[in-house]
Design goal:
The strands form four sheets. A five-stranded antiparallel beta sheet has the order 8-5-7-6-9, with helices on both faces. Strands 4-3-13-14 form a four-stranded antiparallel beta sheet. The protein has a four-stranded antiparallel beta sheet with strand order 12-11-10-15. The N terminus and C terminus are likely disordered. A hairpin with a 5-residue loop joins strand 13 and strand 14. By secondary structure, it is of the alpha+beta class. It is built from 24 helices and 15 strands. 46% of the residues lie in helices and 12% in strands.
Length: 628
């Protein structure tokens, strides 16, 4: 694409004439993009157009050293070919999205809504006209970017047909696809998301999140909830009292963490703080410089989150096999370039700490372990296959062929390697970059203090007193976590990443139900009343103790959620039956039921408008015990 470029990267007289640069300008830097790249850059969005122009000119204006006595005009060369090639690499994700998406990757929310409505209408008319040709419907939906298997997993035929014809469904699916695609363009293509650029996510993603919150706020202000007694409450006011309020969510998380810590101290359990990080291939940019990471393979933050979930699933399975129980919390947060990593605060019997570390490290370091300097085989079978390949090479070379046992004797197997791992392995800088352990020292303060800042950073950057918790370590300029928390929120919402997860202990759903009004009334010898009193006081530790302890199995819970069928046949907007409603809790041994929700609510627009049932009245005997 480099017009007039010679093989050495310099530009001859013909090239200068072609570019419109005369000999009198020889040595003057290019100030505008030339050749075909001008058209490529013109097709980019505004923010990327400016960035691409700067990057292209920086590569095209090359200064080569030829000795101190060489005149400056002889040191200037224009490497247009190199700049053109780099531009194609940067812009590749943008044009790939342009080819793959059903509408412009930079489409506005209004354009997405209009397209989604037309899409639902087209499916509706097509179904009425041609019938239910599932292969055709699937083909058309997939062509629009829908992940059919993921989105429709477990859905009925009626539900699938209803969704395909619904503009609101397509608005959600296409909106998610478009927003993630344009973030991928900025992050993967132009390396815009990094410590030296736009932290955690692009500025465009932050603006999109702000606009979404404004729309949600306006809708909540317009809605109200009314019960059968005529009592009406603004939905926005109710949301402020729920876990949707950052202050409420943060307070509850810290209460639960402090409760787990109290249990650990009472039982003399050990505390471990750990950090799990993805392999280099998931990281777009280097941490200090923000420069492109050559090992990056194009993965999105969502891909990295899936990797961490897979690793954790293997860790949990191995811990279960080893009969090692843990309880605590894990927090997912972004690196500077948007790649997620996990922090975990876990408690366990002190005798299990070494085994816990070995199990976690084994699976955290398994993939791409060569970059950590770890050389071993995952299984004995893999080691034997390698040993046989060595024998084959020896035979071809005509030399002495070593026995299989001899070769295997010099090879390491994963399980044995980690069983023998000591402080030198865990202390290695490369291994610590993938998995890092810190033992909780009770003498230095609370265990909750180790994770408090990470909790705050992923909510609103404040502590329970409403004060900022300090600077964000990922920020170059030392911005307050209160400021950067908005970017973390936008990042998590964009990529659909679950930020907090409780490990072990009793389900928080039961805790929340017990905190409702009237649940503490009754005989204090009743397990429900006692658990409700603990929950009402915010004593998570005592609540967990009453529920069976930190290692309790779901099937052994003394209290479960009580659910009922609706008294009338209710369906959602897609014609699917509405499931059972949570109405209270039940003593799983005696069958005693405590109702926490006594009203029937409808949601509608203030001053009239469409309404829908929110819960149902208590007249059903169809029980379901559910501890989740």
């Amino acid at each position: 694409m480099g017009a007039g470029c010679d093989g050495g990267g310099g530009v001859g007289r013909l090239g200068f004439d072609f570019l419109g640069v005369g000999m009198s300008d020889f040595g003057a830097p290019l100030t505008a993009v030339v050749g075909k790249s001008e058209g490529v850059i013109a097709g980019l969005p505004d923010d990327l157009r400016e960035l691409a122009t700067k990057k292209w000119l920086a590569l095209a204006n090359v200064k080569q050293q030829r000795g101190d006595d060489t005149p400056d005009w002889q040191r200037k060369f224009y490497d247009v070919k190199r700049a053109d090639a780099a531009l194609q690499t940067w812009a590749a994700p943008f044009f790939a999205c342009a080819d793959a998406l059903p509408l412009d990757v930079e489409a506005s929310d209004e354009e997405i809504r209009d397209f989604a409505k037309r899409t639902g209408d087209l499916f509706r008319s097509g179904i009425y006209q041609f019938g239910w040709d599932w292969e055709y419907l699937r083909e058309r939906a997939v062509a629009l970017g829908l992940d059919w298997d993921e989105v429709f997993d477990g859905k009925s035929e009626v539900g699938i047909l209803g969704r395909l014809q619904d503009g609101a469904f397509w608005n959600r699916q296409l909106g998610k696809l478009i927003r993630r695609s344009r973030e991928h363009v900025r992050r993967a293509g132009f390396n815009l998301v990094n410590k030296r650029g736009q932290l955690f996510c692009s500025n465009r993603a932050v603006r999109d999140r702000r606009a979404q919150k404004l729309r949600n706020s306006a809708l909540l202000d317009a809605l109200s909830m009314v019960n059968e007694l005529g009592e009406e409450f603004s939905l926005s006011e109710l949301v402020e009292k729920s876990n949707a309020n950052p202050a409420v969510r943060r307070a509850e998380l810290m209460t639960r963490i402090a409760g787990f810590e109290a249990i650990a101290r009472d039982l003399n359990h050990a505390g471990e703080f750990l950090t799990l990080t993805c392999p280099s291939r998931f990281h777009r940019a280097h941490h200090i410089s923000g420069d492109v990471n050559d090992k990056y393979d194009g993965s999105s933050p969502r891909d990295a989150a899936a990797y961490l979930q897979k690793v954790w699933a293997k860790i949990q399975a191995a811990l279960k096999r080893a009969e090692i129980g843990i309880y605590g919390f894990r927090v997912a947060e972004p690196h500077h370039d948007g790649c997620p990593h996990w922090h975990g605060l876990f408690f366990m019997e002190a005798c299990h700490v070494d085994a816990f570390r070995r199990i976690v490290a084994r699976y955290a370091c398994r993939e791409n372990r060569e970059e950590l300097g770890l050389v071993y085989f995952e299984t004995q079978t893999a080691a034997k296959e390698f040993a046989r390949s060595v024998q084959a090479e020896q035979r071809l070379g005509g030399g002495k062929v070593a026995s299989l046992a001899t070769i295997l004797g010099g090879l390491k197997i994963e399980g044995a390697f980690w069983e023998q791992a000591d402080w030198r392995v865990f202390g290695d800088a490369k291994v610590r970059a993938r998995v890092l352990f810190k033992a909780i020292d009770w003498r230095k303060g609370t265990a909750a203090g180790y994770i408090a800042k990470y909790i705050a950073k992923n909510i609103d950057g404040k502590n329970n007193a409403g004060e900022g918790v300090g600077e964000d370590w990922e920020s170059v300029d030392g911005e307050s976590v209160v400021v950067t928390a908005e970017r973390v929120d936008a990042w998590a919402a964009l990529w659909g990443i679950r930020q907090f997860q409780q490990i072990g202990g009793a389900p928080v759903g039961i805790w929340r139900e017990l905190r409702r009004e009237g649940m503490t009334e009754g005989d204090t010898s009743d397990v429900i009343v006692r658990a409700a009193m603990a929950a009402d006081k915010g004593d998570w530790g005592k609540f967990v103790h009453l529920m069976g302890g930190a290692f309790v199995c779901r099937s052994s819970l003394p209290i479960a959620l009580y659910k009922e069928e609706a008294q009338i046949d209710l369906t959602n907007r897609y014609g699917e039956p509405v499931g059972k409603f949570t109405r209270g809790v039940v003593d799983t041994k005696s069958g005693e039921i405590r109702i926490s929700r006594i009203h029937e609510w409808t949601v509608g627009f203030k001053n009239g408008g469409a309404a829908a049932p929110w819960t149902c009245v208590n007249n059903s005997t169809n029980l379901r015990f559910d501890g989740v």
